[in-house]
Design brief:
single chain; alpha/beta; two-stranded parallel sheet; 10 strands; 29% helix
Length: 315
């Protein structure tokens, strides 16, 4: 969607999960659709048009590198089963499979998005391997850590972008320096929040005692000397003057104005999705939240791609 907003023609996609692929088809109607594992993609009958791309884009699954999920997913090199139902599989080497596709198609530019955790701790070794494989495939690659809060997105969301240019094109290094004014939550907030789904009613009870200075549920819990559990750190409280924190596939964000959760309309606005987006089978608050939390904000992607076009494709 971000590419379309930047004026490009997105001709196809490869997606392993049937449900996510169905949603993609409903909203984008791609000319070429491959509902296959990226490891089997190059074994398909591929149209000649794919060998004449300006840009190849891919976002390999990032949960194994996620800061928030690092203690849940397990060690690098281990296998994981997605909640959508795919077989158990190793995730941390899928970036290298994506680079194999780039080596095959030889697009002018390759763009890949991932989480900040990829450049932290032991994961940094994978970054060196990724850069090495890009080099072997004939690409010079730059890495940018960007925050969507300064990219016309009403959300603070840090993401890593790999921007690679084919060596034989002799393109200069690209500059990505976004400094748009942050958009506070109050400017996009819907009139009514979402009702609670917590069967214990505990968080709803504590939110009735929230103070304007509270930033998460823990701040409220800590004021109770009898409360031993401080709750999940990811359960943030957002005031109207603040930029919304990162919308994730798990956890909740509460509104200071009424003590309720973000509504579906809030989440769609925070992620800069269109209001008429068809979420398919992902219905309900948490189904839609999961899909949005796993996505790149389209406005964020639009701004990256617009600079790529401006500096490299449309000089």
């Amino acid at each position: 969607m971000g590419y379309k907003l930047a004026g490009l023609d997105v001709i196809g996609n490869c997606e392993i999960d049937r449900r996510m692929n169905d949603i993609y088809i409903k909203n984008h109607r791609p000319r070429y659709n491959f509902n296959v594992d990226i490891r089997n993609f190059l074994n398909q009958r591929l149209p000649n048009e794919l060998y004449n791309l300006d840009i190849l884009d891919g976002s390999p699954p990032c949960s194994v590198f996620s800061i928030s999920a690092r203690n849940v997913v397990g060690k690098f090199g281990s296998e994981k089963r997605f909640r959508e139902g795919q077989r158990e599989q190793r995730l941390d080497n899928l970036f290298l499979e994506f680079i194999k596709v780039a080596r095959k198609f030889r697009p002018k530019i390759v763009i890949a998005e991932n989480v900040k955790g990829l450049i932290l701790g032991k994961a940094k070794g994978y970054v060196h391997e990724i850069l090495h494989e890009f080099d072997n495939a004939g690409y010079d690659c730059q890495i940018f850590l960007l925050n969507s809060a300064f990219m016309q997105v009403p959300q603070a969301r840090e993401r890593l972008f790999f921007i690679a240019r084919r060596k034989d094109l002799d393109l200069p290094k690209i500059s990505l320096d976004f400094d748009f004014p942050p958009i506070p939550f109050g400017e996009i907030r819907s009139p009514h929040g979402a009702d609670f789904t917590d069967p214990s009613g505990k968080q709803k009870f504590y939110l009735d005692y929230r103070l304007p200075t509270d930033t998460n549920i823990q701040d409220i819990y800590k004021r109770n000397p009898y409360e031993k559990s401080y709750g999940r750190r990811s359960n943030s409280i957002i005031s109207d003057h603040q930029v919304c924190r990162t919308l994730t596939s798990a956890g909740c964000i509460y509104r200071m104005c009424d003590g309720l959760m973000l509504s579906v309309a809030d989440m769609i606005a925070v992620q800069t999705f269109p209001t008429d987006f068809d979420f398919g089978e992902s219905t309900g608050l948490f189904g839609i939240k999961y899909l949005l939390g796993m996505s790149v904000p389209p406005f964020m992607m639009r701004n990256v791609v617009s600079e790529v076009c401006k500096q490299w494709l449309r000089p």
